[in-house]
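F.,

This is the one I mentioned.
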């Protein structure tokens, strides 16, 4: 008896699946997006891995053997003998050195040996010629831009004197060309020449290692034996082993952590897809209650119904997963071609068949899991439901006692965990507690969501009710099915919480960077003088330069207190544009004045000082007593431990000349830097101890890192938003099918097609409004808790305009997602109200 029932029940459900494929496609759309996102990430990881290896790997594929001398560098004569070996096709001596460029700026040129052409070359010539004689170098693109070194330019390097290592000699070099080097080398200004000339250029005795390419057919073992005859005791490693080690080093650390972070966001996106799929399957099964009730009425067992519905879900998952994987596979192989057209270089991915199968199987399991709860609920339908209309059986409004208690328990645990960071000094524990609390809060939102729909709608739906009949119908349509509204809005809330949390974190980190830069990089440039300092005439010349602004001189003086050396400075924070961004731990910077000092954390902690305390600094005439005007939570301005006014620094016995000058660029920074270097050459022609530091580069680098982190985070959380919008589209589409008779009745009562379209569109937008309110309530506070845990000194920054834009954008986006279902609703005729909804 079981086999016929199994066949008949399963056959009826599969027939229903084939009869209405559009409904099944709508149901599986969120799962398809999830499969696409997951496999697209696999493809992105392969592209990133291959591109990173191609850009950063330092050992070319043609290298068969790498020889490294243990005791000292490999000599020029030994390299000549290696090249003469019968199994060697080519050998290149490698050495990495560097030298400062003569001049006032602190510019450094890394020096590398490379053949410039051939299979063992690590560089590619992009302009000019590669050097072929002593005194010539080719530079990488960074050096060409930063140091303004074009082919034909001449510059001077300061290299160690071979006769006296403590002295340097000037070596004039001519730039012959510009090359593209590996990404690692491009991070610094670099110069290249052949191994035959690198020794004379940098005064080096030999090579750090030798890359060797074997002749065709010569095995690595035989090549090693030949090389050992020349380099007795040298370390030899096959090229494949060296490349494998480089791969482990390159792909470890930050890159691996990035993909771990991406996997966390993927898990969140997959969870969102599961929530959407569960909601849509619940709607589909509710629409088929009469059919399921008829099967129950003729004796179909409940277990067979659950099995049949689960098989239906598995088929939907298999089709959706296959389509998602196929789309991601095509996009992955298309990406390098598009990048090449855009002027970028990306390496091609492979064909990860195993991952493709795993994603499809995982998608099937996901849909089966999403089906189970709605299927078991639908299978419990009473046979009497066959006598009722489908539209009358889907109005579940409340939640059961078990769900209510579970939701309250989750909320209570979330509150308890959120309080732990303030009680425990362990930062890692506090961070995990905050993340766990956020997860529990979201579970509480899932459980208690139906109870929150109506209170939120009472406020958020107020403007819509003022729009007339369509607004009231939209609010009533969403509020009339709170469980469905909560199921969809919770997914939207997850996306909003992640987006708003990312925006708040970026804003807070940006504020923290501003505070840090205000003390570590308070200006674009810093001119540091030696022991003689800078006299007032030179400082006035700096101030008179039209390319510079906010020129501020300062003096420093070293003092010893309690067995430690501290630096005292008279740099006035009030004279700096960034002074307003300096945060204090106690006191106020405005109280800095005669007899009063600002103390940085290192000294404040060592001496136990806070605002209002007094302390004494040693001076040639005894001691200078100072009152603490303010203490800083971190370092002081330009690493100074104490800030005082110039008169108090005089009492401490400081020199009259300025120790340095800081200044901002008044316009183009590169022009300002050149003007500053020119002033130093003109005013101080014989001063080699003057150095220019471009503080703006460090400042810009830190801020760019924060912006990049924010962009990556927003890109990842956008996956959840995409799935949420797909969920709104699917839910609205299925709801439009379910409410066909209702729409027909509204048309019969005189509601026009345009008004009905606006009603359905407003309902879809209300899902975004509900999700936006709940998401902001969840995301903003937890982002602040997380930032305060990770970066204690970060200020609270709420990007109000961006948060409002996210809220409005989600409402508009979800409203747009309802346009197609709205068009379907307008095709319903008044006669439909007299027919059957199915």
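My design for it:
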């Amino acid at each position: 008896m079981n086999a016929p029932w199994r066949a008949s029940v399963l056959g009826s459900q599969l027939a229903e699946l084939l009869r209405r494929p559009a409904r099944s496609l709508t149901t599986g759309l969120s799962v398809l997006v999830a499969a696409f996102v997951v496999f697209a990430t696999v493809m992105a990881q392969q592209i990133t891995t291959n591109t990173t290896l191609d850009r950063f790997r330092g050992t070319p594929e043609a290298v068969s053997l790498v020889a490294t001398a243990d005791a000292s560098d490999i000599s020029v004569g030994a390299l000549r003998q290696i090249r003469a070996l019968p199994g060697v096709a080519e050998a290149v001596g490698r050495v990495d050195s560097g030298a400062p460029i003569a001049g006032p700026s602190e510019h450094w040129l890394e020096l590398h040996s490379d053949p410039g052409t051939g299979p063992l070359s690590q560089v590619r010539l992009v302009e000019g010629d590669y050097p072929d004689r002593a005194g010539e170098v080719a530079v990488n693109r960074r050096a060409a831009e930063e140091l303004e070194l074009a082919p034909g330019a001449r510059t001077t390097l300061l290299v160690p004197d071979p006769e006296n290592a403590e002295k340097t000699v000037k070596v004039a070099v001519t730039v012959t060309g510009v090359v593209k080097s590996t990404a690692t080398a491009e991070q610094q200004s670099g110069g290249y020449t052949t191994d035959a000339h690198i020794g004379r250029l940098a005064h080096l005795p030999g090579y750090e290692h030798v890359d060797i390419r074997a002749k065709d057919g010569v095995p690595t073992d035989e090549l090693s034996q030949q090389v050992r005859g020349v380099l007795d005791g040298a370390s030899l490693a096959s090229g494949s082993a060296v490349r494998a080690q480089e791969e482990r080093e390159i792909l470890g650390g930050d890159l691996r952590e990035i993909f771990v972070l991406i996997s966390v966001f993927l898990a969140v996106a997959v969870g969102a897809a599961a929530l959407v799929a569960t909601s849509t399957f619940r709607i589909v099964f509710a629409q088929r209650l009469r059919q399921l009730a008829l099967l129950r009425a003729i004796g179909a067992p409940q277990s067979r119904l659950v099995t049949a519905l689960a098989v239906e879900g598995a088929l939907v998952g298999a089709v959706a997963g296959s389509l998602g994987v196929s789309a991601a596979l095509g996009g992955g192989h298309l990406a390098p071609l598009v990048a090449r057209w855009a002027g970028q270089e990306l390496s091609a991915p492979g064909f990860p068949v195993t991952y493709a199968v795993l994603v499809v199987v995982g998608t099937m399991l996901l849909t089966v899991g999403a089906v189970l709860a709605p299927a078991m609920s639908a299978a419990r339908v009473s046979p009497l439901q066959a006598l009722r209309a489908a539209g009358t059986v889907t109005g579940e409004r409340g939640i059961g006692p078990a769900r209510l208690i579970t939701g309250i328990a989750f909320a209570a645990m979330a509150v308890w965990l959120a309080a732990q960071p303030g009680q425990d000094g362990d930062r890692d524990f506090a961070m995990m507690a905050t993340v766990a609390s956020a997860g529990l809060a979201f579970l509480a939102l899932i459980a208690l969501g139906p109870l929150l729909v109506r209170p939120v709608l009472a406020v958020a739906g107020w403007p819509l009710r003022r729009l007339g009949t369509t607004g009231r119908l939209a609010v009533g349509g969403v509020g009339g099915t709170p469980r469905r509204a909560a199921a969809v809005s919770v997914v939207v809330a997850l996306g909003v919480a992640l987006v708003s949390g990312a925006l708040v974190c970026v804003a807070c980190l940006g504020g923290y960077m501003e505070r840090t830069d205000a003390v570590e990089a308070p200006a674009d440039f810093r001119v540091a003088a030696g022991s003689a300092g800078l006299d007032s005439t030179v400082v006035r010349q700096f101030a008179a330069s039209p390319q510079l602004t906010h020129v501020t001189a300062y003096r420093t003086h070293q003092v010893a207190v309690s067995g430690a050396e501290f630096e005292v400075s008279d740099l006035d924070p009030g004279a700096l544009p960034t002074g307003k961004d300096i945060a204090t731990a106690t006191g106020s910077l405005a109280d800095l004045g005669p007899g009063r000092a600002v103390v940085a954390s290192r000294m404040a902690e060592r001496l136990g000082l806070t605002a209002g305390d007094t302390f004494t600094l040693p001076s040639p005439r005894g001691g200078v007593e100072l009152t603490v005007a303010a203490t800083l939570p971190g370092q002081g301005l330009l690493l100074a431990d104490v800030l005082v006014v110039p008169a108090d620094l005089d009492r401490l016995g400081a020199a009259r000349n300025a120790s340095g000058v800081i200044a901002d660029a008044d316009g183009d920074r590169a022009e300002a830097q050149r003007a500053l270097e020119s002033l130093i050459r003109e005013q101080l022609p014989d001063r080699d101890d003057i150095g220019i530091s471009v503080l703006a580069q460090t400042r810009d680098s830190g801020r760019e890192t924060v912006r990049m982190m924010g962009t990556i985070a927003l890109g990842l959380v956008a996956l959840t938003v995409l799935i949420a919008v797909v969920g709104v589209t699917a839910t609205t589409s299925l709801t439009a099918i379910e409410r066909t008779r209702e729409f027909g009745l509204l048309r019969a009562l005189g509601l026009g097609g345009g008004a009905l379209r606006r009603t359905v569109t407003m309902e879809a937008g209300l899902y975004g409004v509900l999700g936006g309110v709940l998401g902001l309530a969840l995301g903003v506070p937890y982002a602040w808790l997380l930032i305060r845990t990770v970066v204690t000194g970060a200020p609270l920054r709420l990007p109000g305009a961006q948060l409002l834009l996210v809220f409005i954008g989600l409402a508009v986006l979800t409203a747009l997602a309802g346009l197609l279902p709205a068009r379907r609703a307008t095709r319903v005729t008044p006669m439909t109200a007299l027919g059957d909804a199915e």
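The chain has a mean pLDDT of 80.

Talk soon.
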